[in-house]
Amino acid sequence: MFNFASMIFNKDTAKKTAEVLLQINAIKLSPQAPFTWASGWKSPIYCDNRIILSFPPIRNYIRETMGKHIERQYGKPDVIAGVATGAIGIGMLVAEYLGLPFIYVRPDAKGHGRKNQIEGFVESGQNVVVVEDLISTGKSSLNAVKALKEANVNVKGMIAIFTYGFDIATDNFKNADIRLNTLSNYENLLEQALETNYISKKDLETLSEWNTNPSEWDAK
Questions:
Q1: Residue 198: other Cβ atoms inside 10 A
Q2: Residues ≥6 apart with Cβ < 8 Å to 182
């Protein structure tokens, strides 16, 4: 049986990844002026890992760390798959690092042309590891996994840069029988942010409270 709680590479990697994401503002923490997500949730955190692509040293760190993590956790697969659109760039970098073919998975099949949902070449029975940039509820990530399984490929697991660590995501991955590994997570992010004085202890309380019930949280 898998431990379906998101497994991080190691503590040092989790803290280092959190550090660089904060440095380049790929993750922003704003307890006093929360963001509004597309879902309508109010949130003191916003994550956009596509910003990583604009910083060569950091994108190289992410691709190499992810590549090594994939080989250690899953063995070398036949193909790397990225989840559109956020993980296309990162997924391509990881595939290049490992010397593997790359494909990506759309949220839905195109309504024209060949009507593909999976873009690129993959054969039935091949082993695939899915690369994702961010895990919130896991719904869109697992939608990509579903499409791959329907194409009769063997999904060995998923690796993401960061997860909020929501219970609903843990349940969704468990129910889908998909193993998830991440470079960093919310717990390590808050530790790093506090140690570097990015946030105060009062901010930490607010950020921790939000994470326990994000859909109902409201800034005070």
A1: 18
A2: 6, 7, 8, 9, 135, 159, 160, 161, 162, 163
DSSP for 41-80, written as a single string: -EESEEE-GGGGGG-HHHHHHHHHHHHHHHHHHH---SEE
Q: How far apart are CA 53 and CA 38, in angstroms?
A: 23
pTM: 0.92
How many whole angstroms separate alpha carbon 100 and alpha carbon 46?
A: 32
Parts of the chain with a pLDDT under 70? 1-9, 110-114, 219-220
- Report pLDDT for 36: 92
DSSP letter (8 states) at residue 26: S
What letter would DSSP give residue 216?
T
Strands (E), the chain: 7-8, 27-29, 35-36, 42-43, 45-47, 79-83, 102-105, 118-119, 127-135, 154-163, 180-185
The tens digit of pLDDT for each residue in 3-48 reads 444 566 688 999 999 999 999 999 999 998 999 998 888 999 999 9
The torsion defined by the Cα of 174, 178, 183 and 187, in degrees rounded to 10, comes to: -10
pLDDT of the residue at 173: 95
For residue 28, what are the β-bridge partners?
46
* Domain covering 7-212 in this structure, CATH number: 3.40.50.2020
What whole-number distance in Å separates Cα of residue 190 and Cα of residue 196? Answer: 10
**Under a CB-based contact definition with an 8 Å cutoff, are residues 58 and 24 in contact?**
yes
